[in-house]
Write a structure and sequence with these properties.
Length: 158
């Protein structure tokens, strides 16, 4: 009988603690959610600040061209640790709202002409022997003029 009374007392006591702790748990969870949301906002500010530096050129759909050492510029998504979409040595570039046209030098002055679709993330190599405007017209893409990447970075510093 005494054992039953003690266990009943414990049950009543534990249920009263649970009812007092439940609102506190909810408050703690709300505070943590607000804290996490504010941290995400701070990271967006950092990303936006990086876009204003002289080492990044903003391209469409969250792609960027990053300035590398001695003309080793490359194209990647805005996020940290995202894979490189176009390897280094990009020296000419042009873009519109969806496509990035690039030219790069690599491996003993070999050249590559390519088109990056920034909506799908696919890069297509184009022929260097054919006219670029004709190839773009065949793909139903308006003409995209190419500009020197170093001059674009120089304009950003001026």
């Amino acid at each position: 009988m005494i054992k039953w009374m003690v266990s009943r007392y414990e049950a009543v006591y534990l249920s009263s603690i649970k009812s007092e702790v439940a609102p506190v748990k909810g408050l703690i969870i709300c505070v943590l959610c607000l804290l996490l949301a504010s941290l995400e906002g701070c990271s967006n500010l950092i990303y936006d600040y990086r876009d204003t530096t002289n080492e990044i050129i903003v391209l469409p759909n969250n792609y960027r061209i990053f300035k590398g050492n001695s003309d080793l510029h490359f194209i990647a998504k805005k996020q940290d640790y995202s894979p490189i979409a176009v390897d280094s040595d990009v020296y000419r570039i042009g873009w519109d709202e969806q496509y990035v046209l690039y030219k790069r030098k690599f491996a003993a002055n070999s050249l590559e002409l390519g088109l990056l679709d920034t909506k799908t993330g696919t890069a297509t190599k184009l022929s260097l022997e054919q006219n670029v405007s004709d190839q773009l017209a065949y793909l139903k893409i308006k003409n995209i003029p190419l500009k020197d990447v170093n001059s674009l970075f120089d304009k950003k510093t001026a």
